[in-house]
Amino acid sequence: MSLYTDPLRLNEHSLFQELKNNLPTNIIKDTRNILEIRDNVLYVWNAKDFCVLTLNVAATHENIGANVAYQKLRPTDPPIFEIKNLLINETGTQLVLWGNLGLILMELPKRWGKEGMFQGGKDEILCVVYKFDHFNTTVEIRKARWHPGSTDDSHLLVLTSENTFRLYECELGSTPRLVKYWKVGRMPSSSPSKIPDFSSLGDTAVDFDFATPTLRKPEMFAGKGINKDNVVDWNQIEWPVLVLRGNGEVLIVHGNVLHDNHENPVVSGSLSMYPPADDNYGIDSCSIMCMQTTPPIVVIAMCSGKIYHAILLKEESNDEDDTDRRTWSQCSTTYVLRTPEEALYVYECVEIELGLFFADTDEKYNCPIHLHCDKGNKYRYFCSHNAGIHMVSLPMVSQLEEYISSSEDKDDDLLPSLSNQSSSQYLICRRTKHTGANKATSILGLGLLQEPCVLVALLHTGDVVARSVIDLHYFPKIEPLEPIINIEKKAHKEEFDVYIKKLLKRETSQPIIKIGSTSMSPRECLKLLYHATDIFRKEHFVKHDNVREEISKKVLALKVMKSHLLKELGILMETKKELHQTAERLAERYEDIKDEQEKLAQRAKEVLRLVNYKEPSITPIERAEAEELRKMEMKIEEIKIRLLELKKKSEQQAIHIENNELNEKRKEIVFRDNQKKTIKNSLGHMAKDIKTLITEVKKLEEEMNM
Description:
Blueprint: H1 14-21, E1 35-38, E2 41-46, E3 51-56, H2 57-62, E4 71-75, E5 85-88, E6 94-98, E7 103-107, E8 111-112, E9 117-118, E10 124-127, E11 129-131, E12 141-146, E13 155-160, E14 164-169, E15 177-183, E16 205-210, E17 214-215, E18 237-238, E19 241-245, E20 250-254, E21 266-268, E22 272-274, E23 285-291, E24 297-302, E25 306-314, H3 322-325, H4 328-331, E26 342-351, E27 370-373, E28 380-385, E29 388-393, H5 395-405, E30 423-429, E31 443-449, E32 454-459, E33 464-468, H6 496-504, E34 512-513, H7 522-614, H8 620-666, H9 673-703
Parallel strand pairs: 4-10, 22-26, 30-34
Antiparallel strand pairs: 1-2, 2-3, 3-4, 5-6, 6-7, 7-11, 8-9, 12-13, 13-14, 14-15, 16-19, 17-18, 19-20, 20-21, 23-24, 24-25, 25-26, 27-28, 28-29, 29-30, 31-32, 32-33
């Protein structure tokens, strides 16, 4: 496959090679959506291996040709019914796989690590799956959507073939719980009668979508600003549901189904469509989508290829006309529908080509059309069907935004103009006039990779087509950092790029044709080549020549403006030089003033210090310390008095001691001279006697031989 149809080389990736080999053997003839891209991660259902394959497409876009690793999310309890749709909630925590005969819920694991892979990059991950046990074998699922008003993104609304809505609360880690269910029509009859019932006449609901949120009682908030301290009761906010029947009738469901469990939703219908049409704008409606704009734009697709764009507004009617607006269902005793307050105002019809080479006299190919919104760009949407993929641009969205954002005095010049009609681009073609009626040409799924926008489509053969989507009628608006309010009326000047877009606007496009090799003869291929060449010659080359002339004129004007701006730039440079010199002088003066200011600051600081030092008032800490000093002075005075008393006592003791010593000296014994001589003589005699006794003792010892 060429780089034009697959610039990301996804067909060479092992994920899509495995997916191509595991496609079911039976031929898939109906278009479905088993592929989705959310946060640059691609999710696709592998029917043969019973798992969800995931791939980081952004990493593949950065490393083209490299085989980036992919992961398998394997459910714990694989479904036994055929999966036709894959749906992920906005937070990326839960995934719904559903078909006509059943619906299962899968919890997605956490993402972390390089390239944000699940559980850090494991090859296969086992995911918890919950089944919905409220469906029997006779009930088919028509549509399933996540409720946008759910605070935790866990409410799922399901439309069944019994004209019944079922609202489920799918909390993480628990089985889905049926919160509420209500009917939007009579239950189809299953009797084998040959008389056609209302289901065969197109009175069954085939699709639904959520409109923009509204207030249930607007009179409660009249005259109150949103940005003030007024507390808004969330129970008063509701998300109306638009229900499409096969015969083209649109019902509307009011009521806060999320917060009010006791009140049943109010079903009103069918909505009046203006201007009236004989066929009620088709009897083969297949899909509905509501653009989240103010007021909401409703898109209704028919199997014939016609797509109606309508604006949902309040209907102004008289009481006399109420009886004419009542439908048959309101007069019925078995089922009652209330008269709606809204109406659809159809402002244009876009007819897309379901295949190529069909003449006006040929019987056109019909098939169901599936509508897909672009989450990154609300000015366009995509259509997938058995004949390929279309992109439709909506200039009305930008016109409504400009009209609403304008001043309160609405001018007729600012009203949306129907001259800027919507345009369709045939991106991928899957059928031609010569394709067999029984040949499968379905689209299995599509996803959008944002910035830059790349459309990734999966064909029934397993091939992948990745095409860059370029919208020549849309440029992203750059919002200013702060709102600029100008009361005066502004002159609306058309930008040059918008003017070039208008010149390049064309009514036809060249799709990528993906058909079998045996379906066209060489003559038909040559005819296709001539047809494409003729379109390029008439639609592209002439307009490109006009654009080249306009660009050359613009270049000449810009050159003249450039020379003038260069002169202005020279004057500004001289002024800049003078300002620079003045700035230098001011800088020098600033430095001198700064030094002087620092000196004055130091002097002021010193003055403040002296003032605080001499200030009579003291702090509590200083007062406590002073009290302690006073107590210490009192103790010192007491100690001084005690010291004086001790000194007196010590002096008295010293005098007493001196007197005692004198008395002791007076009591000494004094001997006379004759007494001293007598005592000495006595002592001498006593010494002689002792000496004689000692001599005798020694002799006795010698005699005794001792």
